[in-house]
Amino acid sequence: AALLLLPVNILLAGIAALGCLGMFRLSRRVGAGPLASFAAMAGLAGSCFWAIYSARALPEVLGATLLIWLFWAVRAQTDRPWLATFVAAGCCVYLPPAHLRFLPMSLMGMGFFGLFGLCSRQSWPAKLLRLAVFSLLCGIGYAVFFLVQQDMYGGSSYPVADMLFSSPLAMWVTVADFKGLVPIFPLFMWLSAAAIGWLFVDRAQRWF
Question: Burial level of 111, CB count in 10 A (0-12/13-18/19+)?
């Protein structure tokens, strides 16, 4: 029985390792040095949340890995535009099938990719063609996903409309409670503060 689970465990470990690699590559992409990038990767890999969920067949680590590589693709548009386009499209399309509650993150990633793409230094014909291909791929992926949802469940398999923003206070509790995101994932506070500081300090890496 243990041998039968070995391929599953290898797959789960591979997804978690790919997420950690993505964190390192994303950190390097936004201008962090090797040591700082390794610290960000170690903070993710060593967190209680990542260690526990990496060993379970649950969608959280897969969703986080896809989101990390999606944001790598957002920044990689500057020098690897077409590779970034296909990576971003793949991540955006696969986030909702990984779990329907990842749909808002997929839409957010699409928005960021388009925004950074429009602000890139490519010529307008080149960037518009690339973003049109990105939109087409995402549109096809979303259409297939919702057709499958309709065919299997007769609609959405998850009550997004009933639950989205149904309890705004609960969102704050999810972050601030002693069982919430901050105690379990301390890197969240560090990355949040760094993101705000980045807007004012690192002018070379800003998109505006």
Answer: exposed
